[in-house]
């Protein structure tokens, strides 16, 4: 199995696991405090992974120029904005629509990477991305909307617009990460990915942590008070991000994002085996559609 594929599958698993764990923090932390948790508690773990890589492969950190730091700052800001937009999409009646449209990040990422990085894909890979997006839309909206006309009307609702904006930010985040990896130069792509992760997470901690200190100082105490669960969420976030960054370094952004849609399969598996919920016919059909899309993407590699 190619390293980029293994890293992407692991990233999707870690992300699902982290999301499930963060449910325990709902009601205890604000939106911004929950974001700080991911970065603040994730920095030590990401740094440990980076240092372990340096020791195992007798490598040295790459010199960091202004271009690299700008790419990292862009990735950090866009990921924070994407997360906040996604949460804003989760209104009383917008959860399904917002989630569905945020999942268009794979298709958006393919277009952005083509325009900015010149990453070209085969027709089969493009078809696979389309099938993956269709599968996630179906899983998110089936049973919650009344046909195609209502889905089209939903695209102008605030939840859909926030969701599309979130998907755009996440897609652009991946492009910035790729740009940071290229800016470091050299041939050790995994080293570049891990170094980019550490620098980006430190910047995110300072950016969102500074905002929290300015606007929500009381939440800083809550971040410390929930350290047991928060530290676990941060560790999973760092492991997942290390895998995402590695995937982006080794393969086209669009392919990594498309294969990463298997996250929804891990979510269904978690629901079935941990929460003891029985999958519906819709869940099975949507999951098979996502799998078919991933297979097409891999065949079009």
UniProtKB/TrEMBL annotation:
Q: Which residues form a coiled coil?
A: none
The record's annotation in SUPFAM superfamilies points to: Multidrug resistance efflux transporter EmrE
- Domain EamA intervals: 159-298
Transmembrane as UniProt keyword: yes
Q: Which InterPro entries match?
A: EamA_dom, EmrE-like
Matches recorded under Pfam families: EamA (PF00892)
Cellular component (GO) terms are: membrane
**Which chain regions cross the lipid bilayer?**
38-56, 68-90, 110-139, 159-181, 193-214, 235-260, 280-299
Keywords of the record: Membrane, Transmembrane, Transmembrane helix
The name of this protein is Membrane protein
Q: What is the lineage of its organism?
A: Bacteria, Pseudomonadati, Pseudomonadota, Alphaproteobacteria, Acetobacterales
